[in-house]
Amino acid sequence: MNKNLFQTFNIFLTKNKRIILSATLFSFVFFSLGVPYKKWWFIGGEDDYIDPYELGYKTKNWKWHELSYFFYDGHTQPQLNDPNYKRTTFFTTSYRPLCCIGIALRYRLFGTNIYHYHLANVFVHAINAVLLFNIFLWLLSFLPALLLALIWAFHPLISWFFGNIVNFHYYVNVMLMLFVFIFFKFFLDTRKWKYYFLSCITFATSLFTRETSIVLPGIIFFGTYLYQNKSSKIGIKHFYKSFFKILITTSGIITTAIGFLLLRLYLYPINLSVSNSASTSLNTTNYSIITYFKNAAITSLNCFKLFIYDLFGLSWIPWDSQYKTLRISLFLLILSTLIWFFIKNTKKIHITYLFLCMLIMLWPSYIKGIFSHGYFYEAYPFIFLAIIFLFKFYNGNLKKSNETFNVFKKAALPILGIITMLFITLTIKSFSRRERRINTRTQAIKTLAYDPIIKNKSLYFFGLPYGAFVTNTKKAFWMLLDNPNIPIFFDISLSVKPTNIHVNEIPSWKIILSKYYFEKFTPASNIVSTKINHGFRFKSIDPQKVSFIINDNYESNTKKIINNTVNIKGKDLITDITILFDQKDLKPNTLFITWDYKKAKFKILGRNI
């Protein structure tokens, strides 16, 4: 009886191995990255505060059918009910109606309980891991496919990018794009039109969620040619002969993209005289032409280095200079290995195609002129497939006498396992650190928002820790206070920053990597603030630990007087500064609020400044 039961169970496992592993993978990702982090809240980015406020809070009293308005004006930051709002144009809009509806619906369901937003993000991310696992199974056996799916799910890049609750549309868009590829492959294999229509419908849904997928017709077009010509000699002449046949095969996908663009053009006409304010920051500092190009070159170089480290999976290595040798060594090792496997590969064209697909999926970074981690989330599936092709179709000397290759072949799976465990450990540790950092900010915001002292008062925030708060934090207060009419001003033009981390450096790319991002933004008791007539004076007790940064890119109503600077590591750091408030802000009902660096919470200074 027991033997028969064991055999039946074994047969069940064998027949349903794919389903069981998929369910296990989903559960592991969801419970590792989602369930434990009950204190998750707004991560602090600009959009993280804007979108839930503009699209969630402001539409909470709409009727359900009114959400269809977003198909008419689906810009993700429409500034609802703003009399000064000007409709965006074709090139400046982020027309994402389904994304807008999704944010509005989630706000109705979850309100400001961001833990549930986070669970929703991880839920879709776990689905993506399962989809990639099944796609990898087209080329690999179960174990390497599972390990690669885990590496993708827990890649260090995820720990940097993941967490902003507004980024839900990235995860949904990747899920939809993966379904487009799966359905279209099923169509090519079976010629069943239901799969064709499913791929077109899913593609349209993806476009209305996030416009990044507009490049899929080109990717699918060339991918179809490569997929249908497995045994044929692939070349330019052969491609031209197959061109119209492939064009007809992919016409549904192409027509869907054209239809979306025409709709976008109808709703948002082209107006070249309007600049993209979302990607242009006002800088009131007088820079010379030489300084401007110098800063642009440094920014571009830093962005390129960030791109390279993300591309080669080295984001987990600290950015500090003492790790430079390790970063460069691993980079050269990985690069030389990939080049070797490419040279002796039978699928060079396929690998090149996948690499180009990755570059194409990063097109938003070319438009904005700056690289972002988030764009890699949509491009990484192509990178993983390219790596699979590199190793699977390696055509070096496969004889037993080739001991080097045999050793590598035997070691490949254990190496993959070690990388998987390393990435899982680093990412889970990263999530825990981020949650602690987020929770400090969360508790400070909620404690102040629920303090009856601030009720019906104008609020002026200043002298805040660098990287902890942004100007749109005021929208979180409006949601918590349930009163968008309260005047709130966040002056972050003067920030307090730990000196020993990236000395006096204001990165134009927000997340630098490694140590800095996880560092506490509360420099303990190293600051003394003194109240003076119409202002305050801030002084650093230990310049080696704390200094001040003036950033004129942000709006400010204060005059700043530098009293003292100290040169540390070749940088002149501000250690003593006075700020004076504009007379128009000195109203009886205005509360001036700064940060208590000893207790890690907001500190109300009162009205009489």
Explain this structure to me?
The chain is α/β, with parallel strands linked by helices. The chain is built from 20 helices and 11 strands. It is globular and about 80 Å long.
Keywords:
609 residues; alpha/beta; four-stranded mixed beta sheet; four-stranded antiparallel beta sheet; globular
Low-confidence spans: 275-287, 502-520
Query: How many distinct beta strands?
Result: 11
Q: What is the makeup of the main sheet?
A: 4 strands, mixed
Number of helices: 20
Summarize the topology.
Blueprint: H1 2-15, H2 17-33, H3 46-56, H4 97-110, H5 114-136, H6 142-153, H7 156-161, H8 168-190, H9 193-209, H10 216-228, H11 236-249, H12 251-267, H13 289-311, H14 324-343, H15 348-361, H16 363-368, H17 373-392, H18 403-449, E1 458-461, E2 464-465, H19 473-481, E3 488-490, E4 494-498, H20 514-518, E5 527-532, E6 535-540, E7 546-550, E8 558-568, E9 571-581, E10 590-596, E11 601-606
Parallel strand pairs: 1-3, 1-10, 2-4
Antiparallel strand pairs: 4-7, 5-6, 6-9, 8-9, 10-11
Helix pairs in contact: 2-5, 2-6, 3-4, 3-19, 5-6, 5-8, 6-18, 8-9, 8-17, 9-12, 10-11, 15-17
Short description:
The protein has helices at residues 2-15, 17-33, 46-56, 97-110, 114-136, 142-153, 156-161, 168-190, 193-209, 216-228, 236-249, 251-267, 289-311, 324-343, 348-361, 363-368, 373-392, 403-449, 473-481, 514-518; strands spanning 458-461, 464-465, 488-490, 494-498, 527-532, 535-540, 546-550, 558-568, 571-581, 590-596, 601-606. It is of the alpha/beta class.
